[in-house]
């Protein structure tokens, strides 16, 4: 169980950190404006578009990875153990 917890924590920490960096670069219009949750740039270049796609992918990887290792896998293991008995 500790192994699954650490995998979920590592996924949430690493992808969350990279998501925060990318969101800080592309979604923070100013210090006193909305930070990390502002609108995407209106006309991104090719590299900015790739970075925005990576940012969205990392967000969902952070959420789904943690849920998978903290909820889905332990629940599946518990269900398999109960069905075996």
Overall morphology: elongated
Q: Taking all residues together, what is the mean pLDDT?
A: 91
- Considering DSSP H and I runs of 4 or more, what fraction of the residues is helical? over 70%
Low-confidence regions: none
Structural features, described:
By secondary structure, the protein is an all-alpha fold. The protein has one domain. Helices cover 75% and strands 0% of the residues. α1 packs antiparallel against α2. The longest helix is centred in the last third of the chain and has 39 residues, at 46-84. It is elongated, with a radius of gyration of 18 Å. This is DUF7314 domain-containing protein.
Please write out the topology.
Elements: H1 2-26, H2 46-84
Descriptive keywords:
85 residues; 75% helix; 0% strand; mainly alpha; elongated
The gist of it:
75% of the residues lie in helices and 0% in strands. The protein has 85 residues and is an all-alpha fold.
């Amino acid at each position: 169980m500790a192994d699954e917890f650490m995998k979920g924590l590592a996924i949430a920490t690493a992808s969350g950190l990279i998501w925060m960096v990318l969101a800080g670069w592309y979604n923070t219009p100013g210090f006193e404006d909305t930070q990390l949750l502002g609108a995407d740039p209106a006309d991104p270049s090719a590299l900015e578009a790739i970075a925005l796609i990576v940012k969205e992918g990392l967000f969902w990887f952070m959420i789904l990875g943690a849920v998978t290792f903290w909820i889905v896998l332990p629940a599946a293991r518990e269900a398999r153990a109960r069905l075996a008995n």
